[in-house]
Structure formats: C-alpha cells, structure tokens
C-alpha cells in the first residue's frame, strides 16, 4: 500500500462512527461522580482545586470503561491513585525546566512500556502523562500540590464508590464475553448447514476464557450461569464440526444430510436463547420445536456410526448449556484464579523486561512517544502561543504501538478538537457562564463523552474538547485566549506523532512470516497431541490436547491481529503476497480443523491403541519445526517425514475410518500450505 492510500485509509478509519450499544446509565453514573466531586471541591476549596478534582474523577470514570476483567472499582481507584502520584511528582520537578523534562521523559517512557501489560494499563498510563501536563500548572506550592493530588485521588474514590453503590448490569463484561462466545457458536452451526467445512474464529471463545478468570471473592459471588457454561461451550464446537463434515459426519446429500441441517438449525436456536439469557440475566426460553428436533427418536434411527454419536453428544451438551444457564447445576467446578495486583508485579516486570530488545514494537513505541512528548513540550514552551502543554498532551493521547491507530487517532483528534472547541467557545462567548454554570456544562460534556466514547474516537474528542474549554473557563482562564493556541498546538502534536512513526516505525508487515511460522508450529503441536492420544489412549488424558489447542488459538489470533495491522501499512511485504497470506491462513485453519474433528471422537481410556498414530505424531513434530524455519527463511516447506508416515495408513483407514479421514484432511491442508507459500493461488471460500 502506498503512503497516500495508507493516509486516506487511516483518516477514513479515524473519522468513522461505529454502531455500538449505548449505555446511558453507565454514562450517567460517571457524570454523577464527576458532578459530586466538582461540586464538593468547588464549594469547599474554590474553582482551581475543583479543576484538579474534575480531572481525577473524569479519568477514573474512563478507566472503568476499559476492556478489563478487573472489578470496576479497582480500576477507578488505580487510575485516581496513579494520576495523583503523577501530578504530585510532576509539580515537584516543575520549577526547573531541565529537571521537569527529565521527569517527563522518564514518566512517558514508563507509560510507553506499560503497553506490554495490556491495553487497559497502556491507556491509563498514557492518560496520566497527558493530564499531568495540565494539572501541574494549577498549584502554587508544594503543600497546595499535595492538596491537588489528594483531591484527584478522592475523585477516583468517588467513582469507585458509585460503582459499588449503583451497579449497572452486574458482571456485564463477563456476561457479554460468554454470550458472544455462545452467539458465535450459534452462527457457526447455521453456517455449517450451507457450508459443511465452514471455518470458525476462536477469538470469542478465547475472550470468554479470559473473562472466566476470577478472584476467590468473585468466585463466591458470580452468577450461577457463569460457572460452567463456557466449559460446555468449548466442547460443542468440535461436535458441530464433526457432525456436519462429510469426511467424518453425514454424507453430502441424502436424508442424513437433511436431518443434519435440522439438528444444526435447532442447535443454533438453543445457543442463541442461552446467549440472550446470559447477556441480560433473563430466564432462558428454549423454543419447544428446537428441543423436539434434538431429542426425537427418528434422529437416532436415521443416523449411524460417528454421526449418530455426534448427534447424541450434541443433544447432551446442549442440555448441559441450558442447565448451566438456568443455574440448576449444583457443581460449581474449579475456577481459574485471578491473583491480586500485588502478586502480578513480578510477572509484570518480566513482561516489560522481555520487551527491552531492539525489534520490540513496545520498546520502539516507548522511545518514540518519549522523544515526541519531550520535543512537543519544549516547542510549546518556546513558541509565543501560551498553553504549550497542548502539543505533548495531544501526542501522548494519540500515539499507539501500531501505525494505523496512531494516524487515525491523530486525524480524529484534530477534527474533534475543531468542532468541540468551536461549539464550546461560541457558548462561552454568547452566554458568558459563571463558575457554577461552566462546571455544569463541563459535566454535561463529560456525560456525552462517556455515552459516545465507544462509537468512535472523533465523537469522543468533540465532547472532550468542549469539556476542557468549560473546565478551564471555570478556573478563570479566558476561553478566547486558549482556543486558537490549543487548535494550533493540537495540530502540532498530531503532526509530531505522525512524523515520528514515519521516521522510526515498527512495521508489522516484515514480521508476518514470523507470526505465520509460530502459528504453524502451534498447529503442528496440537495435531500431534491429538494423534498421540489415539496412539496411547490408556496413558494420556486430554489436558495436553487442551494446552496445545489454546496455544494454537493464541498463535492464530496473533497472526490475524498482525495481518489486520499490516493491511494499512505503507510498506511492501517481503516475499509474502496477500494471496499467499490468505492461502496459508486457510491451509493452517484446515490443519487445525482436521485435529478438531478427530478430537470430537477421541478414544476412551480402554480403547485399542493405534501404533501408526504415534509415528505420524512424531513426524508432525519434526516436520513442523523444519517447516516453520523454512517459512521464516522464505523457503517452501517440505513434509517428507509426514508423507512417509501417511503412506503407511492403509490398514488404519480400514479399521478406523474417522482417523483415516482426519489424516486425509491433514494431508490436503499441508499440500495447500505448500502451494500457497510456493506462489500458488489462494483457495476460495
């Protein structure tokens, strides 16, 4: 993609509004916390302290909107406390320009590295730097600065208290994650009716798995329908695939296929009903005709062999989903423990330390944002515009570790600033509001921002810009003097951010082959683990398969995320065309699918071992390691050991048709991968 086209695409993306479900009650709660904090500080301490408290409450409410499985009060308290510390440290160094620039550089570099710990931590850390640049200009002494830091922390505490006192949709994030996973499986069941080999994106299941990690206190309090439904949902997907696939399930045409379509449609309706009940906390209402289709005796009479077993298994699993959704299961089962924040510190240090290497996108982002923020602060101080902190504040808020988000947010920031500042300035100059009315208008803008912040960055920036104008007006700063300077400095900050990425990029495109190689290795381990179970059914449990499956899903999601970022980058791919990437992705998805179909029919512990499966598993492990290295080195992979092992499968296919069909699907996937990476055309579908 050329630079011109990349700029057009990122600009369009930054100005796009998304259709998202609005949450007015959550927005009202955040605005109420802001109003309580600002009103109390204004009545007790005056407008300047009220501005500091407003920033603390404002940022704490934003923290509760982040996609995190931590309790919302914890996020609000962490945001308020960290912002209070940032503000106080910044003020202590603010008397000396060289010292403050050093502190700003250290703080910004740490905020850049914080992206290694996840999006939520990265957003909070970047916001702390941005707000610190404003709040350090308000106090006049160390004691006053300590007071301002205290009211900032109080603002976070107020928001945390309101979340506890007025919860909106308890366990909403966990409910949505689990409901999305069930809805994705319902959609998968419907697609299988028309495309028996349809692919399935495992990301909703992985998100639901992350959401299921809880603290011991949460485990005692979480709703019954969130206990075991996800585990049952994980087992439904391979059963759906094995029932529909012509290789191991029903034939492509005939009465068995018609009955299969009826079963898949019924499964989709049951899963949709369970998803709706979990999302909104309503009683689950299963359509009677869907249950009748799943449990009719005619189904078992018509099907035989593996399809019959899959149909029986599907009906039993859907019964379990309904039972778990209704909270009728007495067995809460084990839960995955989420350690407290203090116990996460050593692991967080290790994750940050792993990013301290030259090719790390996170380290490059930290260096880039540090240089831009310091340069922007010095330029803002040198230019005769006043309020020079707007340039570095814009830069730190728009910069992200990847190209597309940085450029899109820069365009959206400037566009939102023009509209928000223009509207707020017109209101101030026309109505001349006093201190209290300015505070009320700032709270109203905050409410709008909380309401629309998930619909697009440009919409949120309109409200943020107006919010800051009203807030500064409440503190006594003349709006007419701040508007033109802020617009110019916002443009400067955005331009600095965009230029910095062009000069010191962290492109994802050159790393696509590494991502593909990691996915290939993970897929190979997953397939080998499944075949090992057939070779040693008495000696192995399915935990090794589960671990390998999760690794394969993580690698697939990492590849998809990298590919999505690379699409918008203005750089050429090195030996991996778009057609080759699509073909390789399809082949690896089919490779994982072959293992998933076999996993749906794993032998019991007392089953007869299949010795040929062991040699195939060993060959797979060896060849995938070599193939991954070949992918990185831009060579075509070969599968000599796997092909030799597959050549010995004639006897196995006669005695175990499911295993033979799975091996045949694996061979097709490997051939497709080889063709894609050697310049073959990408497959359709």
Could you explain how this protein is built, in words?
The chain has 685 residues and is mainly alpha-helical. The chain folds into 3 domains: 297 residues, no CATH class; 154 residues, no CATH class; 164 residues, Up-down Bundle (Methane Monooxygenase Hydroxylase, Chain G, domain 1), CATH 1.20.58. It is globular and about 85 Å long. The two termini are 24 Å apart. The relative contact order is 0.09. The C terminus is likely disordered. Keywords: Cell membrane, Membrane, Transmembrane, Transmembrane helix. It is found in: Cell membrane. It is a multi-pass membrane protein.
SS class: mainly alpha
The rounded Rg comes to 28 Å
Indicate the low-confidence ranges by residue numbers: 680-685
Bin the strand percentage: under 5%
Question: How far apart are the termini?
Answer: 24 Å
What's the order of the H and E elements?
A: HHHHHHHHHHHHHHHHHHHHHHHHHHHHH
Helix content: over 70%
Assembly type of the chains comes to: single chain
> What is the strand tally?
0
Q: How many domains, as an integer?
A: 3
Mean pLDDT metric: 85
The gross shape turns out to be globular
Count of alpha and pi helical runs: 29
Q: Strand count, sense and closure of the main sheet?
A: none
Keywords:
disordered C terminus; transmembrane; FUSC family protein; Methane Monooxygenase Hydroxylase, Chain G, domain 1; 685 residues; Memb_transporter_dom; single chain; transmembrane helix; mainly alpha; membrane
Question: Mind sketching the topology for me?
Answer:
Elements: H1 3-14, H2 24-44, H3 47-64, H4 72-93, H5 97-113, H6 119-135, H7 142-165, H8 172-194, H9 203-211, H10 216-221, H11 229-244, H12 255-280, H13 288-295, H14 297-302, H15 305-325, H16 341-354, H17 361-382, H18 390-398, H19 403-431, H20 435-452, H21 457-474, H22 479-503, H23 512-535, H24 543-566, H25 578-599, H26 611-632, H27 640-646, H28 650-655, H29 657-677
Helix pairs in contact: 1-19, 2-3, 2-7, 2-20, 3-4, 3-6, 3-7, 4-5, 4-6, 4-7, 5-6, 5-17, 6-18, 8-9, 8-11, 8-12, 11-15, 11-25, 12-13, 12-15, 17-18, 17-22, 18-19, 18-22, 19-21, 19-22, 20-21, 23-24, 23-25, 23-26, 25-29, 26-27
